[in-house]
Amino acid sequence: MIVVTGATGQLGRLVIASLLKKTSTSNIVAAVRNVEKAKDIAALGVQVRLADYNHPATWDAALKGADKVLLISSSEIGQRANQHRAVIDAAKRVGVKLLAYTSVLHADTSALGLAAEHRETEAYIRASGVPFVLLRHGWYTENYTAGIPGAIANGAVYGCAENGRIASATRADYAEADATVLTAENQAGKIYELAGDNAYTLEDLAAEISRQSSKKIGYVNLPEAEYKNILVKVGLPEVVAVLLSDSDTGASKGALFDNSHQLSKLIGRPTTALAKAVEIAMK
Predict the structure, then answer these.
(1) Closest C-alpha to 248, from 271, 275, 219, 276
(2) 75: DSSP letter
(3) pLDDT score for 241
(4) pTM here?
């Protein structure tokens, strides 16, 4: 039995879809905090169980009988480490044989501000004694392609990544890799640094948007504080704006780059090219 936490999230749904191609429906459990939002998952024949990161008492029942658990990191920045502990503690109590955790690329050495909670979670997992595998995800291409309408409207991609190379991949790429590891044998103790095959700069991104939209789109590099303020002005919560601007600065220092190709090796195909991701986002 494989339990996927946060199963109604953007990544979780894609992991469930990938697992359905690799194993029997009866082997999959979707752990969610809102069962109503999981009706479409249940309609596929997947068992749905209530489990809330903020309610530790829900996790023993959610993980009952689980051989493997995919702990998808919480989206609540600043609360993640405490929330993850509830799942890890329950996994230990019920005797889970493998706990997979979606960490961040090079979490142990990353300069990204968001890496701190991932390092804390990784340390807690190690100390728990539960057999584990770390799925260190790089940047999601969608983090940038989601801003394409604004870039076209404003005639520019804004950021503070300078000429930093970004080895991103799509959520579907990462989800497929996660599902591959969850359905493979002998994964305990492994650490995967997962990133896209072909790195690009934000200037490259602007050029690709320009090519596909037939509009002149440039890249404007800003100081981190100024970029953060722009993100707030367009409606992003302060905490998200801080994360994205910090991550761009991290990219300028190589924090979003990796050329080990571990992701494409896991999924058995090249990761989704930037041009394709832009094409999908513009449809």
Answers:
(1) 219
(2) S
(3) 93
(4) 0.96
Outline where DSSP puts E strands in 28-177: 28-32, 47-50, 68-71, 98-104, 132-137, 156-159
CATH number for the domain harbouring residue 126: 3.40.50.720
- 170 assigned to some structural domain: no
Find the domain containing 161 and state its range. 144-150+155-165+197-258+272-282
CB-CB contact of 93 with 65 (8 Å): no
Q: Is the pLDDT at 79 greater than 90, yes or no?
A: no
In a shared domain, residues 7 and 130:
yes
Mean predicted confidence (pLDDT) in 13-41: 97
Q: Is residue 105 part of a domain?
A: yes
Same domain, 33 and 102: yes
Do 142 and 281 touch, CB atoms closer than 8 A?
yes
**Residue 37 predicted with pLDDT over 90:** yes
What is the pLDDT of the chain when averaged over all its residues?
96
Residues 26, 14 contacting (CB under 8 angstroms): no
